[in-house]
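Priority: medium. Attachment 1 of 2:
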């Protein structure tokens, strides 16, 4: 594919990027819950020997839909990007650290309620991959798209520094691709990195 034919890929995170969310991830060891993590703590938590994640709340579409509050500035930006990008052949995806949701229809309703055309946005669930950290899982997905060679530009909207750092670390491996990261803050402000 010639470079002029190449398109852009825009990636949005969900938790604390598009929505403030409440679901917690439990860490259990020998059948007991040893820690309860909010999604930001989960992003950086490294499992210790014998521990595993319990994603019960994280999988619940009902908890997601009922307790998430939209981050207006990012939602607005996402809507605009989805509208223009998909018209020009570029792609928009969501990459979440979550696993599969228990009710996809209900999950999608939370996006539709914000006017997001979720039918045009594929949701990649990095929690299904099983590496040690959420950022390592996300990198596997980023690479899957980069390896197609279709993209001249890739940009990531994420609240988590580790995810953004992992994203930028791919620059070396894909020198022809233009990488842009946007960090989303608690206030909803977006900073271009
Ligand atoms: Mg996040």
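Attachment 2 of 2:
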């Amino acid at each position: 594919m010639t470079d002029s034919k190449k398109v852009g890929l825009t990636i949005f995170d969900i938790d604390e990027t598009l929505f403030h969310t409440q679901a917690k991830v439990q860490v259990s060891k020998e059948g007991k819950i040893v820690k309860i993590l909010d999604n930001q703590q989960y992003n950086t938590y490294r499992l210790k020997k014998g521990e595993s994640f319990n994603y019960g709340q994280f999988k619940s579409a009902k908890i997601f839909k009922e307790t998430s509050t939209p981050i207006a500035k990012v939602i607005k930006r996402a809507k605009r990007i989805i509208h223009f990008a998909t018209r020009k052949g570029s792609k928009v995806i969501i990459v979440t650290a979550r696993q599969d949701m228990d009710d996809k229809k209900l999950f999608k309703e939370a996006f539709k309620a914000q006017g997001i055309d979720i039918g045009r946005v594929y949701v990649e669930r990095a929690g299904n991959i099983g590496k040690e950290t959420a950022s390592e899982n996300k990198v596997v997905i980023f690479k899957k798209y980069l390896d197609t060679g279709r993209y001249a530009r890739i940009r990531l909207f994420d609240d988590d520094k580790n995810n953004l750092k992992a994203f930028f670390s791919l620059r070396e491996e894909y020198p022809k691709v233009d990488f842009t990261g946007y960090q989303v803050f608690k206030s909803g402000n977006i900073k271009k990195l």
